[in-house]
Specification:
This protein has about 650 residues and is of the alpha+beta class. The protein has helices at about 10-25, 50-55, 60-75, 80-100, 110-140, 160-165, 170-180, 185-200, 210-220, 275-280, 285-310, 325-335, 345-355, 410-435, 475-490, 500-515, 515-520, 525-540, 600-615; strands spanning about 5, 35-40, 45, 150, 225, 235-240, 240, 245-250, 260-265, 315-320, 335-340, 370-380, 385-390, 405-410, 445-450, 455, 470, 595, 620, 635-640. The protein is elongated and about 90 Å long. About 40% of the residues are buried.
């Protein structure tokens, strides 16, 4: 391989198309699973785009750069890794085709390849600038009014009837997400489990994002992976599971509260003063005698610490480090249990839930350092024994129901996939409830033309993505935004340049978007056309001026219901029903195709445009002899499975 490699537009396109061919077969509701063979010979099945891309051993730095961008995006939003690759490949194909058709540019460059590269960079930069300037407003005008905004109260349904009416949208959003990761068999179970987890950690009188942030930040300490059991054994258990066993255990009674203290360091004797050092080392005794004196003094010093803990009623010690044998022996004598080497995340969560301050100096222990527990006992989960604690109810503590999640799977690989899918689902919900907010500039006006009416965003109006905005899955977002982009391009007549102007940029972006629904309906191109035609027909028949006030009202969710026509329902009803007459007012439709987050869709589109713009600025690769350390240890031996779910049941 040469030390210097000059990249052309074709090279970039070919590299991304290879990644596209990998993720394409696992994309969409009809996508299959990917079978990987590891170095150890162990096989792994997965539909997760992130897991598939990280499992590849990529030699070309350009491919690694793309995968790194995908991973950074999915780390934030928890979703969209496969859509990222599909959109990027589609954009690069369109840019390549447009750049090759551009006339007379080669006159100012040394070669045709240089002219094409310059044109491609210019197009990518223009599309990114257009997206940063106009895209959020177009989504707010042309997409959001045909979706709905979920309420955080949807998570708190108490009865089965409420769960069917109020919680259906949240269930559909999560079920669609888990379906793309785990298949049809487990999507409903995992969505119910996730809703139940969030219900227990709901912080009263606080923003929804606060609860989601808390679960997202502490999920490593809140869940326990257990292999050897089917996923149906996954459950919530009261309190917190500390992923360590007792180093010294004295059984506690369940009839009285248990008091515990968290130590961040070692239990050690108090530091000696100068006169104490002289006192221990004085006289003509030998060295062995001095060691005996020091050991006796150290033991008595530790006994003072244990006595102080006993006076406070402490019977459990949680330690971030491994304590000495002397400490363990003294603790057992005092009937105290010790848990060593507890992770920082678990100690932080314990301190927050118990409202107790960790002890840094064992000689300064006050009542505020003591946590009151309902119980502290061993728990056996799979083949491992852990420490299970439950917190004493207190009005001063945050009014939540502390619980831990046990995630089960037949093998370690499957268990890890289930836990990763749940973590990404929390991130997806967080992105949905904390959308990117932008407003129209005061010197602009955007118009969307329909057959009979015109929806105009005047400078006095502000459009933002509200928290919880969702749209029907199955390509609805892409169809609606494609329509809005085409209308926007046709309304912008201030530029006569058909290639470099804003109308051309919106046209190119609109065409690229259709690659996602085309792949969704790749098994049935006829259904792609039927869905697009029906959706555009609905927009023309239900066109109305879009305003912020209208978004407060019940919105319309567009979906494809097989061969049946869409039928509006009464407000708040989310069951299948056909009405003889269509109500012109916006209502909610049957959600058999599931839901997806508008904010996540918007973020993946922006991330793709930024990545494409950066990618096309690379013209030379310098190869070095430095060994690159990658996270993957899997071979690129891939075979394609059908749409059957993992053979777990």
């Amino acid at each position: 391989m040469p030390l210097v490699e000059h990249l052309h537009l074709e090279h970039v396109l070919q590299t991304v198309c290879v990644l596209e061919s990998v993720v394409r077969r696992s994309f969409g509701p009809e996508g299959g699973q990917v079978l990987f063979t590891q170095d150890t010979g162990q096989a792994m099945l997965s539909r997760s785009g992130t897991r598939i891309l990280t499992a590849l051993r990529l030699e070309h730095p350009l491919a690694r750069m793309v995968v790194e961008c995908v991973l950074k995006h999915s780390t934030v939003t928890g979703d969209g890794s496969k859509t990222f690759i599909l959109l990027m490949a589609s954009l690069l194909r369109i840019i390549h085709t447009t750049a090759c058709k551009e006339p007379n540019l080669s006159l100012t460059y040394n070669s045709k390849a240089a002219a094409e590269a310059a044109t491609a960079r210019h197009l990518a930069d223009n599309m990114l600038a257009f997206a940063l300037e106009e895209l959020d407003d177009l989504i707010a005008i042309g997409v959001v009014p045909y979706g709905c905004c979920l309420s955080w109260e949807d998570f708190t349904a108490k009865t089965q009837l409420q769960a069917h009416t109020n919680n259906h949208c949240v269930q559909s959003l999560l079920a669609s997400f888990f379906y793309s990761r785990l298949g049809r068999t487990h999507c409903e179970f995992m969505s119910n489990l996730t809703c139940e987890l969030l219900t227990h950690w709901k912080i009263e009188n606080d923003l929804p994002s606060s609860s989601l942030h808390f679960v997202n930040d502490n999920l490593a300490a809140l869940h326990t992976a257990v292999s050897g059991f089917p996923i149906s054994c996954s459950r919530l258990i009261k309190g917190q599971v500390i992923h360590r066993d007792f180093a010294a255990h004295c059984p506690q009674t369940d009839h009285q509260p248990v008091k515990a203290v968290v130590f961040t360091g070692y239990l050690q004797p108090k530091l000696l003063r100068a006169e104490e050092v002289l006192e221990l080392g004085c006289g003509v005794q030998g060295k062995q005698r001095n060691i005996v004196h020091f050991s006796t003094w150290a033991e008595r010093s530790l006994e003072c610490v244990i006595a102080k803990l006993q006076s406070l009623g402490v019977s459990v010690l949680l330690s971030a480090v491994k304590q000495t044998a002397a400490v363990l022996a003294l603790a057992l004598q005092a009937e105290m249990s010790i848990v060593e080497c507890v992770s920082e995340d678990e100690l932080s969560l314990f301190a927050r839930l118990s409202r107790a301050t960790p002890v840094r100096d064992c000689w300064v222990i006050e009542p505020e350092h003591v946590a009151t527990l309902t119980f502290c006992r061993p728990i056996l989960l799979g083949a491992h024994r852990y420490v299970h604690v439950a917190f004493h109810d207190s009005e001063e503590r945050v009014k939540v129901k502390p619980c831990s999640l046990v995630v089960c799977g037949l093998g370690e690989g499957q268990t890890d996939q289930y836990a990763s899918a749940l973590r990404d689902a929390i991130r997806m919900l967080l992105s949905t409830w904390e959308p990117t907010k932008r407003t129209l500039h005061s010197n602009k006006s955007t118009s969307l033309h329909t057959d009979n009416q015109i929806a105009t965003a005047t400078p006095s109006k502000q459009y933002v993505l509200e928290p919880g905005c969702v749209i029907a899955a199955g390509g609805t977002f892409e169809f609606l935004l494609n329509h809005a982009l085409l209308l926007h391009g046709s309304s912008c007549s201030f530029s006569d340049d058909t290639i470099m102007g804003v109308p051309a940029v919106s046209q190119l972006l609109a065409n690229a978007l259709l690659s996602v629904p085309r792949q969704i309906y790749s098994h049935s191109p006829r259904r792609f056309l039927q869905t697009q035609t029906r959706l555009l027909s609905f927009i023309q028949n239900h066109s109305h001026p879009f305003s912020l006030a209208h978004k407060r009202e019940p919105n319309t969710i567009l979906i494809q219901v097989g061969d049946e026509r869409e039928c509006p329902l009464d407000e708040g009803t989310l069951t299948k029903h056909c009405c003889p007459e269509a109500d012109p007012s916006p209502k909610v439709f049957m959600l058999d195709s599931g839901l997806e987050s508008v904010s996540c869709k918007y973020q993946v589109l922006l991330a793709v445009l930024q990545c494409v713009s950066s990618l096309l600025r690379v013209d030379t690769v310098l190869h070095t002899h430095t060994v690159l350390h990658t996270q993957s240890h899997r071979l690129p031996n891939i075979s394609w499975e059908g749409t059957e779910d993992e053979a777990e049941d």
